[in-house]
């Protein structure tokens, strides 16, 4: 029985005995378990340390340790164990290739994580300073950085499996013209996205009006911009269409006050004294409010059924809700003052004179 067992474990498979393969398997499993235990202990210690210190370095380290994939640990264990036995050169080569691919993938994850942490920190600083234009640019740069990092990973992976990168890049250069012609609209939106980041016509949180659409900017992507309308639905506009449109931006950083014009009509039988007092009444109403800036109040028209006055003032707030509320109060105050002064508002009327031919 013992002799049979000895013969069995000495049986060769792919130029290695079954005993060697057994050592390889047990070694891989053991190293994988040790790697997971080491990762768990290291993460707990770094997490505990990060709570005691003000620096962010240990936070980044603990996040990096936590992000190590179990697949990476497994292939690392297999790669180390493969050196314990004399595997065939082709098998060793394949294991090395797979390990390098997983290594590049793990490094890519770390690079993206570090980029995200860096962009997020800068983004939070800009948000605290209410610099939404920088926040918009950071969001776009973050997406571009991820794209470049994954592109680099793809090139390294292709080079690792034997693809001639130089020839591939040259081929892409030749075929790039055809791709550019076939995807003009996509590339147009991409360059429009870069223009928005650089020129900063809009930013996240801006209230904008584009043609017949209006709402708050919620997201600026590589291809399109998403706007949340007042009624709640999401409006998606391609970046190139956005830049080619007549765009009005009502954000606080761009508009410190809003102009209001009110037309007020009074009846024709209003006395001259009361007509003359309307200008001072309107001026007083606007000036008594700390949220408004008086511009002018004057009689502008002898209309069909009314004498028209024009009141113009600025609301000293860019917030639309404040704008509506202040205008509401001003109009109520006008109604109150005119009622006290017995000045009647005009409305469409028609007077019919009936002449009786029998009367002399």
Characterise the protein shown here.
The chain is α+β, with helices and mostly antiparallel strands and about 350 residues long. It folds into 3 domains: about 1-160, no CATH class; about 185-250, SH3 type barrels; about 260-340, Alpha-Beta Plaits, CATH 3.30.70.100. Helix content is about 60%, strand content about 15%. The chain has 11 helices and 10 strands. The strands form 3 sheets. Strands 6-5-4-3-7 form a 5-stranded antiparallel beta sheet.
Map the helices and strands.
Elements: H1 2-9, E1 12-13, E2 16-17, H2 18-52, H3 57-66, H4 70-81, H5 89-128, H6 132-160, H7 165-182, H8 184-199, E3 207-210, E4 213-220, E5 224-228, E6 234-238, H9 239-244, E7 247-249, E8 258-266, H10 272-287, E9 292-302, E10 307-315, H11 320-340
Antiparallel strand pairs: 1-2, 3-4, 3-7, 4-5, 5-6, 8-10, 9-10
Strand adjacency order, main sheet: 6-5-4-3-7
> Radius of gyration in whole Å, from Cα?
38 Å
User: How much of the residues is beta strand, in percent?
Assistant: 15-25%
| H/I helix tally | 11
Question: How many domains make up the 3D coordinates?
Answer: 3
Shape: elongated
Distance between the termini: 148 Å
Q: What is the strand tally?
A: 10
Task: Please describe the biggest sheet, giving its number of strands, its sense, and whether it closes into a barrel.
Answer: 5 strands, antiparallel
* Quaternary organization: single chain
- Give the class from helix and strand content and strand pairing: alpha+beta
């Amino acid at each position: 029985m013992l002799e049979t067992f000895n013969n069995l474990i000495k049986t060769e498979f792919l130029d290695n005995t079954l005993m060697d393969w057994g050592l390889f398997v047990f070694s891989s499993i053991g190293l994988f378990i040790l790697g997971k235990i080491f990762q768990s202990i290291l993460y707990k210690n770094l997490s505990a340390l990060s709570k005691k210190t003000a620096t962010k370095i240990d936070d980044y380290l603990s996040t990096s340790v936590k992000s190590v994939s179990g697949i990476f640990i497994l292939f690392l264990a297999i790669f180390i164990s493969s050196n314990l036995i004399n595997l065939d050169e082709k098998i060793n080569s394949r294991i090395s290739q797979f390990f390098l691919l997983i290594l590049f993938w793990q490094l890519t994850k770390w690079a993206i994580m570090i980029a995200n942490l860096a962009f997020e920190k800068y983004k939070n600083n800009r948000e605290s300073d209410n610099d939404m234009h920088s926040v918009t640019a950071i969001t776009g740069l973050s997406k571009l950085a991820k794209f470049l990092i994954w592109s680099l990973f793809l090139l390294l992976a292709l080079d690792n499996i034997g693809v001639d990168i130089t020839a591939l890049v040259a081929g892409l250069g030749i075929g790039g013209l055809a791709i550019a012609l076939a995807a003009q609209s996509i590339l147009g939106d991409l360059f429009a996205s870069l223009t928005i980041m650089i020129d900063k016509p809009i930013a996240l949180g801006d209230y904008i009006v584009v043609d017949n659409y209006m709402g708050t900017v919620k997201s600026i992507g590589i291809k399109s911009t998403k706007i949340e309308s007042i009624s709640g639905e999401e409006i998606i506009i391609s970046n190139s269409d956005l830049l080619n449109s007549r765009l009005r931006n009502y954000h606080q950083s761009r508009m410190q006050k809003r102009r209001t014009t009110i037309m007020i009509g009074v009846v024709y039988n209003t006395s001259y004294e009361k007509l003359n007092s309307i200008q001072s009444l309107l001026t007083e109403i606007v000036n008594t409010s700390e949220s408004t800036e008086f511009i002018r109040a004057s009689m502008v028209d002898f209309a069909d059924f009314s004498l028209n006055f024009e009141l113009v003032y600025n609301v000293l707030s860019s917030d639309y809700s404040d704008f509506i509320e202040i205008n509401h109060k001003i109009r109520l105050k006008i109604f109150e003052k005119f009622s006290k002064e017995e000045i009647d508002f005009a409305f469409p009327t028609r007077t019919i004179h009936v002449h009786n031919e029998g009367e002399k």
